[in-house]
Structures are given as structure tokens and as C-alpha cells.
Write a structure and sequence with these properties.
The complex is a heterodimer. Chain A has ten helices and three strands; from the N terminus they run ββααααααααβαα. By secondary structure, chain A is mainly α. Chain A starts with 11 loop residues before the first strand and ends with a helix. Helices cover about 30% and strands about 15% of the residues of chain B. In chain B, strand 3 and strand 4 form a beta hairpin. Classes of the chains: A mainly alpha, B alpha+beta.
Chain lengths: ~220, ~300
């Protein structure tokens, strides 16, 4: 039997009391936290150069010179880190018809009326939007970032191209930080989520409540194939 | 012609921290208790013989060395401004379509010391760029972080970032000499009084005399280059063809700070912070109103039933 699109390698139900579900492999978790750390460091160092009243944050990186030096390199780490996440997660984030229904009932999502929502696969429409918007934003950020990486590329691009890039970079960064806030907030609001990225597991109840379609697939997939 | 040579005595000023009127990435400082007379360097392009004495004097005073270059068939040497070369003679061979004459235009390029400096506006490092009340725009290297934002802010493409110490460099208008009552090194070295230095008022008057002279000799479009788009500059040119500044090795016609830079350092800065703040606040508000989304005991029961399978 062919695997459903949203079941990723390592996803597994462990029957027992309570039921636990393996959601992320150790590799995926390490990959995630490298990316997450880079993103936080980039946001702090980037904002310190974006708004003068946040310039004091450069002290966390050993001063302005070192912040200017290290920020692009952290960006390179983020790019490759996120590329790894993209290769792992893109298939399970493909958009489905049910995602439109979920999105249309966003007010029920926010009011925690999960019984009024369609059964959700490994990722809900909100998670998929975080995934795809981050993918697009990171491409924009690395591209515009290279244009304004003065140390290596100042002679490659014209000053006018650099002016456009600096504005695009700042705008994309603001949007990316907002997407990051949504991502972190959702993980805190929906209790039981964070253990998926720390220990790799969630409880069966969590999977039943939030990703029932995925849970059913794991149960039947495990039994019948 | 009875126009006297320009004054070679510089106005006596002692340029200090208290004369700073604009400071990069900082609140506007309180107005200083004294306002220095606005100064200007006047470059009379029509008098320049292209000797490069100003370039040599600049290197000497600033204790810089330029690498031995390569001849690519033009007189420009080096070929562009560098972190060491703060001023550069740019040579242009131009055929005047009206007279059919070949004119050799030689322009001394370098920082224009804008009244509204784009470099200072773009700079993210507090105090790395300052403007004094006499109009001099200066880079303070211990505060510079080498990001290159000043390059994007400058409408004249002047600052250069050193590959050695990763700091931005440009003409200081010899602020260190001006502070002790000396004129800029280039002006001192100029053998034809093409470069003069004094109060801006005095320099504009000097320029006016030169323009009258040039007009009387057939240069109908002679004029002063003191572009209003950047609030005027503290380096001004007398051009024989002031209607076409771009023929002088691309001197911009109506330069101004790029609208992209104004947007980036103006609206975007505040809008960006506000959008991020609002997103975080909406999250917090939702939490306060909706509370945590918790897994219920019946969810765990349902999961247990499902995991056991349909047989049970």
C-alpha cells in the first residue's frame, strides 16, 4: 500500500497507556534547532542594524563590527538548515482541499472548536502556510542578503541594486519575524506540541485532537501493510 | 581681468564635539551653543590643469599610499576612488556640439559634504557619521562597523570600504586641518587656485565672479553646482557647462537621497517595528481571551481506543 502524503519517515504510533506517537526523528529535531537558533540570532543581529534604538543588541555579538561580520554567515547556516527542513517536510505540506475548509473555519480554530473542523493530516493549513511562507521568505532573504553582503559582493552589484535589496531584505525580515511569532505562539498555545520537537513524541490524545487524519493513517498503515 | 585670486587664509574655527549638529543613528543633538560659519570648498573646474597635486597632497596629509596602478589608456589614476584615495581627478574628452571643439573636462571628484547627507541617514552605527555646524560631514572610524550602508545612502557614490580594516573612508574636508585654522590640503597644494576654501558665502561670491568672467568669454551656460536636492553642498563647483553636469564624468544632475533610502530609513523603520509588535500583541491578547488549548482526557481515551484497533 502506498504511504499517505503526510506520513513522514519515523512517524509511528506506540500503543500503551498513554498512547504516544513518534512525530520527529532525532535528525529532524537537530535540523530544526540549528535552523531555529540561526533564525533567532539573525533576527536579533538584523534588528540591531535595522533600528538605531536596538543597536545596543550588537553587544550580544561582541560589538557592531562582529555583528556585521557574523550576520551573513549565520544567514548561510540558516539557508542550508532550512533547506534540510524543506527536503524533509515539503511533501507533507502539500496543499489539500481540506486545507481550504480548515482555513475558512479559522474562527473555530481560534475558538478551539476543533469538532467543527475537518480531520487534519500531519500539518494543518496554518502550519502549511508557515512552512511555505518561510520557504519563500528565506529565498528572498538569502538573495537580497548576498546583494548587500558588502565584504564579498560590493563590486558585483550596482549601488542601485543594493538600495533595492536593502529595502527588500528589511521587509522580508519583518514578515519572517511575524511568521516566526505565529509559529512560536501556536506551539505554546496548543499544549503538548513542544515535546514533538524536544523529545520527538506527542501523546496519542494530542494527535487525536489536532491531527486525527494523520493518527488514523498511522494506526491503519501500521496494521494493514 | 581684475578678479582677485581667492583668499588663502582659512576662517579660524576650532571644530569640536560640541559643534556636531547631526549624528548617525542617534537622536538629533541639542542645538549647539554656537553656530559656526558655513564653510565650502570651491572647485573651479575651468581653472583645473589636471596636475593631480591635490591628489598627492590628500594622500600625503592623510598618510595614505596608493598601489601602483595599471594604465588602461586614460589619465585617471587610480581608476576610481578607493579607501585611500579620497579625491580623484576624473578626465573626460567631450566634443562640444555647438563649436565642434574637443574640450578636456577635468573634475576633482570626492565627497560633496551635503547639507542633507545621505550617508549619515543610512548609517546604522551611532556616531559613526557626524555633521558639524559648519557643514563638514565626517566619518568617525572607531564607531564605523563597515556595513556599507553609507555607500547606498550617498547620491554621489563616494564612500569606499577598506578591505584592510573594514571601515568606510572618504574626504574629511580636512576637518583636522580646518579645526586649527588651516584650509584643506588639496586647496593648499593647488597651483592655479582652482581649489579654494572659505565661508560658503565667500565662496559663492567668488564663484559668481568666475561665472561672469566665463560668460564673457563665451561660456553662456557657465554656472555654480550647489545642488538643492541635497540641501546644497559644502563642496561646490564652477562648471563651464552647468546645464549639463553629467558630461563631467557623470556628475549627477539634480542629485538627491534615493527614495528607497528614505523609505527604508523613514517609514519602513517604524512600520516594521510596529508590525512585529502588533503581531506579538495579538498573540498575547488571544492567549488572554482564549486560554491554552489543552488535550482533554477523552482525547487520550479515543486515541487509546483507536490504537487498540477496530476489533476491540
Amino acid at each position: 500500500m502506498s504511504k499517505p502524503y503526510d506520513v513522514e519517515p519515523g512517524d509511528k504510533v506506540n500503543p500503551g497507556d498513554p498512547v504516544t506517537v513518534d512525530r520527529y526523528t532525532a535528525g529532524a529535531r537537530i535540523n530544526h534547532w540549528i535552523t531555529a537558533t540561526s533564525l533567532v540570532l539573525l533576527a536579533i543581529s538584523g534588528m540591531s542594524l535595522f533600528h538605531p534604538s536596538l543597536f545596543f543588541l550588537t553587544a550580544l555579538f561582541g560589538g557592531g563590527d562582529f555583528t556585521r561580520f557574523i550576520h551573513p554567515w549565520i544567514g548561510v547556516v540558516l539557508f542550508f538548515g532550512f533547506s534540510g527542513l524543506f527536503l524533509r517536510f515539503w511533501r507533507a505540506n502539500l496543499w489539500e482541499g481540506a486545507d481550504n475548509t480548515w482555513l475558512a473555519r479559522i474562527s473555530d480554530v481560534l475558538r478551539d472548536n476543533e469538532d467543527k473542523l475537518p480531520e487534519v493530516a500531519k500539518y494543518n493549513a496554518g502550519q502549511k502556510m508557515v512552512f511555505w511562507s518561510m520557504s519563500a521568505l528565506i529565498i528572498v532573504l538569502i538573495t537580497s542578503g548576498i546583494v548587500i553582503w558588502d565584504r564579498y559582493f560590493s563590486n558585483v552589484f550596482t549601488v542601485e541594486q543594493q538600495r533595492i535589496a536593502v529595502l527588500v531584505h528589511a521587509t522580508a525580515a519583518v514578515v519572517a519575524i511575524c511568521v516566526w511569532i505565529v509559529h512560536v505562539y501556536a506551539a505554546i498555545w496548543v499544549r503538548g506540541t513542544i515535546s514533538a520537537m524536544t523529545r520527538g513524541q506527542v501523546t496519542g490524545g494530542w494527535a487525536w485532537r489536532h491531527h486525527r487524519k494523520w493518527l488514523r493513517e498511522l494506526v491503519t498503515g501500521g496494521r494493514k501493510s | 581681468m581684475d578678479l582677485p585670486n581667492p583668499n588663502v587664509q582659512s576662517p579660524k574655527v576650532d571644530l569640536t564635539e560640541r559643534d556636531v549638529v547631526l549624528r548617525s543613528a542617534s537622536a538629533v543633538p541639542p542645538p549647539p551653543d554656537r553656530k559656526l560659519a558655513s564653510v565650502a570648498k570651491l572647485i573651479d573646474v575651468s581653472k583645473c590643469i589636471g596636475c593631480k597635486a591635490c591628489q598627492s597632497a590628500c594622500l600625503e596629509w592623510n598618510d595614505m599610499r596608493e598601489e601602483v596602478g595599471v594604465n588602461v589608456g586614460v589619465y585617471d589614476n587610480p581608476h576610481d576612488l578607493t579607501p585611500n584615495t579620497f579625491t580623484l581627478m576624473r578626465f573626460t574628452e567631450w566634443v562640444n556640439p555647438d563649436s565642434g571643439n574637443l574640450e578636456w573636462l577635468i573634475r576633482k571628484d570626492g565627497c560633496m559634504h551635503c547639507e542633507d547627507p545621505g550617508c549619515l541617514k543610512a548609517c546604522p552605527a551611532p556616531g559613526a557619521i557626524v555633521k558639524y555646524s559648519n557643514g563638514i560631514v565626517d566619518f568617525v572610524h572607531e564607531n564605523c562597523i563597515g556595513c556599507g550602508y553609507c555607500v547606498k545612502g550617498c547620491p554621489f557614490n563616494i564612500p569606499r570600504i577598506s578591505k584592510v580594516d573594514h571601515k568606510a573612508y572618504k574626504c574629511t574636508l580636512c576637518s583636522d586641518r580646518v579645526a586649527v585654522g588651516q584650509g584643506p590640503a588639496c586647496a593648499k597644494a593647488c597651483p592655479t587656485h582652482c581649489i579654494s576654501f572659505g565661508t560658503k558665502e565667500e565662496m559663492l561670491k567668488q564663484a559668481e565672479g568666475r561665472i561672469t568672467d566665463l560668460k564673457s568669454r563665451g561660456y553662456a551656460n557657465a554656472g555654480v553646482y550647489d545642488p538643492p536636492g541635497v540641501g546644497g553642498t559644502h563642496v561646490i563647483y564652477v562648471l563651464h557647462h552647468a546645464d549639463k553636469p553629467e558630461i563631467y564624468a557623470g556628475l549627477p544632475n539634480n542629485p538627491r537621497i534615493s527614495p528607497l533610502i528614505n523609505l527604508w530609513k523613514g517609514g519602513a523603520k517604524y512600520a516594521g517595528m510596529a508590525i512585529m509588535g502588533i503581531t506579538a500583541a495579538v498573540g498575547l491578547l488571544h492567549y488572554v481571551v482564549a486560554g491554552a488549548n489543552r488535550v482533554k482526557p477523552e482525547d487520550e481515551e479515543n486515541a487509546k481506543k483507536l490504537a487498540k484497533g477496530p476489533a476491540s
